[in-house]
Amino acid sequence: MTAPRTPLSQLEQGIPFEQRHIGPDEGSRAKMLAQVGYGSLDELTAAAVPDVIKNADALDLPGARTEAEVLAELRELADRNQVLAPMIGLGYHGTFTPPVILRNVMENPAWYTAYTPYQPEISQGRLEALLNFQTMVADLTGLPTSGASLLDEGTAAAEAMALSRRVGKKKNGLFLVDADALPQTVAVIETRAEPTGVEVVVADLSQGIPAEIAGREINGVLIQYPGASGAVRDIKLLIDQAHELGAVVTVAADLLALTLLTSPGELGADIAVGTTQRFGVPMGFGGPHAGYMAVREQFARNLPGRLVGVSQDADGNKAYRLALQTREQHIRREKATSNICTAQVLLAVMAGMYAVYHGPDGLKGIAERTHRYADILAAGLRAGGVEIVNDAWFDTVTARVEGRAAQVVEAARDRGVNLRLVDADHVSAACDETTGRAQLEAVWAAFGVEGDVEALDGTAADGLPGGLLRTDVYLTHPVFHQHRSETAMLRYLRRLSDRDYALDRGMIPLGSCTMKLNATTEMEPVTWPEFGALHPFAPAEQAEGYLSLIRELEERLAEVTGYDKVSLQPNAGSQGELAGLLAVRGYHRANGDLDRTVCLIPSSAHGTNAASAVMAGMKVVVVKTADDGEIDVDDLRAKIEKHRDELSVLMITYPSTHGVFEEHVADICAQVHEAGGQVYVDGANLNALVGLAKPGHFGGDVSHLNLHKTFCIPHGGGGPGVGPVAVRSHLAPYLPNHPLQPAAGPETGVGPVSAAPFGSAGILPISWAYVRLMGGEGLKRATQVAVLAANYVAKRLEPHYPVLYTGPGGLVAHECIIDLRPLTKATGVTVDDVAKRLIDYGFHAPTMSFPVAGTLMIEPTESEDLAELDRFVEAMIAIRAEIEKVGSGEWPAEDNPLRNAPHTAGTLAGEWTHAYERETAVFPGGVSMPDKYWPPVRRIDQAFGDRNLVCSCPPLDAYDN
């Protein structure tokens, strides 16, 4: 008898993507559920999630589609974008990503799925790459200390304003901004200044600081170099004047221009900021790109964000690490100097490798070519009777065409080129690495003139002033000279990636970080030129596909969270926090409640919460955490009553930072609302809620989301990230907006929190694709399996390690905290020892000592299959047995595999004097010899690194190449 045939309609569907994203299959889930004690996913989550917050209805989202169908949809959206030659400028330029970098960094999961290098022993590759980036920035800016990247140029300039206030002599003085600064930078500075009471004055500084301003107290000055108009001017006298007035001077500089122009450091600047986008990073409709900041040596320990330095490991070998202040929010909280918790590591690596690949001569050649095109363009316009506004330029030429600027811009657009419409009388054209002769001819034709590139090449005057030409050498370190051939570059990139641990090797069970699958289908469209090569200030009609994708993603995120409106502009979770708090502030001020400035924050909250609140002009009041890890309701009630008339907002994380579904969350929200306050629900733990509960329905007024956690944007070794802000309708008028793109936000908005209108738009196709691939039911199931995986790990580890906090039914949410403090007290084995020993077993450690010192917070996510979960659990059980040997005295407290972990291949060479076997050191139970991950260094001395801060490439002999 013939077996029944599968219907064609079913065959056409193939294997649902959900089965690719979710690790445990049906059989594995059944085993895990049995371990936890429940019969189904629905039964488990019904017990774990409090009834008061549960969704009443299924998510109203389009049904799941196959990978092929989603790629076809994205192709249709991409085809609706028009990519014209990008000659708008304003800090965004066409660039050519060397294919060896595109394929082996941007498209390589060994680089893009790595986590922030807080475990430096297994992050040496990307730390070296970041050190290259820092050296590149320090050399080109002429300032000795550079950070490991910031979010973009606009926010870097705002951070410079804050830094000036911290280190400057005139603490309460105004911040003076060059009128020729990038308009988006000015707007971001103004957004960030207003809540903290900093006065920003924008003035024409081309002839120095005007007398009426010079007579006032000035804290800091920001100068654009070259200016937004393209003007290149000698700013040395302006810097000297500012210093005489006691001001700290920041120069926002174009790094490519600095290969030809005298550096800001040599001109006397204290701080330099900018973007590295044009160093091989696609524009991506505005991001992500690596901003930069470099400072004088005396300001090094005040830098915001991250700084890579050099320390040494247990054998005295040089080793890289993040330096002392890089997680200061978690320590200093409301006293933190910045809320920056992330960087743009993947993009910084690309930019740094662009410099490694091209070297100083190659970069200078690109700059000279770009500049020559600008010279020829200007000469052709002048020959045709068009007035050029500036006497000197690098890549941008501004022309005066009274009353017909719009006509010229339109004519250029018809010829495939986007120019910048400055005003009714002025047009700017910016040349870049991708500019060719055809673009110059199109621009000339748009102005109504003719030009001959060949003829003008020999006669065009040089637009760079001779007195400003750079004479010092830069990028002298061997790394910028050794990798000219593609073979050498390919092997260098491979060598560095082999020193790291990323998701392509194994599980990264970091609590609060949600290191889940970043599917290739989701990633692929990011590099399509229709998404990657679009300028953020291109006319809206050229970005129809992008804008449709953005609107759809906003709407779907609103549906998932239960809010009414979403802004995708914040390009990191910290910026989403700030945007959400600024919306709350705007709402209260619009209602006349100017005294509502108190922000209540639980003591267990993520450190950026407090830092963001201070940046939003709020006063932080800490609420106690009860012994069970939940908010101390009595203390909260007392704080609400005490600050009733000045209460602005309560910030909570849900599920709690301790990984628990708090049953009284709705009551907490109601108490705050009754007192006139708002509720901010931090979205860091949204992976436990999608499809099960909506923050906007159980009491939240505003949340930020982490698309680099819940919605599959990869962590990139510590960035990029996207931190959208979602609000209920009454806060929607106070979302971010943007001066150069009306569609980016409401007219009544608080201003931009990122330089680009839609933030890191270039990676939004990833999250759009994830939601489209999964559909509402798939998203819910992913959440349920994440909760199952966390409870499975907790139940299996519970006999060996105490699980610190649980909720209803003894269950956790999507993560669990295991308590090592009793073991440390009994045996001396620390949380650091366990984390480093996990490296020997082939794992990245869970989150250490957050939110509770001496603990490990484990988040397995839904994407890890049962075999990997069991491998991790068995490693932890084996480590528990090792701890017992230390406690019993079988292994000495100061000489055991935990205290000496991690063990490198080098530890096997030579005489072995330890109290345990070599095999125990490097091949503990269950570790496969062929698949062994070998850490490149032993345990790093953090204290040594803090005392001996080094932040640029050390001599070549400091590390093994």
TrEMBL record:
Listed InterPro entries: GcvP (IPR003437), GDC-P_C (IPR049316), GDC-P_N (IPR049315), GDC_P (IPR020581), PyrdxlP-dep_Trfase (IPR015424), PyrdxlP-dep_Trfase_major (IPR015421), PyrdxlP-dep_Trfase_small (IPR015422)
EC number(s) recorded for this UniProt protein: 1.4.4.2
Domain Glycine dehydrogenase C-terminal: 782-903
Pfam families associated with the record: GcvP2_C, GDC-P
Coiled coil keyword on record: yes
Catalytic activity: N(6)-[(R)-lipoyl]-L-lysyl-[glycine-cleavage complex H protein] + glycine + H(+) = N(6)-[(R)-S(8)-aminomethyldihydrolipoyl]-L-lysyl-[glycine-cleavage complex H protein] + CO2
Superkingdom in the source lineage: Bacteria
Cofactors demanded by this protein: pyridoxal 5'-phosphate
Domain Glycine cleavage system P-protein N-terminal: 19-447, 480-736
Coiled coil: 626-653
GO molecular-function terms, A-Z: glycine dehydrogenase (decarboxylating) activity
Alphabetically ordered keywords of this record: Coiled coil, Oxidoreductase, Pyridoxal phosphate
Modification N6-(pyridoxal phosphate)lysine, positions: 709
Keyword Coiled coil: yes
Protein family: Belongs to the GcvP family.
HAMAP family linked to this entry: GcvP
Subunit structure comment from the entry: The glycine cleavage system is composed of four proteins: P, T, L and H.
Job of this protein: The glycine cleavage system catalyzes the degradation of glycine. The P protein binds the alpha-amino group of glycine through its pyridoxal phosphate cofactor; CO(2) is released and the remaining methylamine moiety is then transferred to the lipoamide cofactor of the H protein.
Full protein name: Glycine dehydrogenase (decarboxylating)
Organism: Streptomyces fragilis
Organismal lineage: Bacteria, Bacillati, Actinomycetota, Actinomycetes, Kitasatosporales
Recorded name of the encoding gene: gcvP
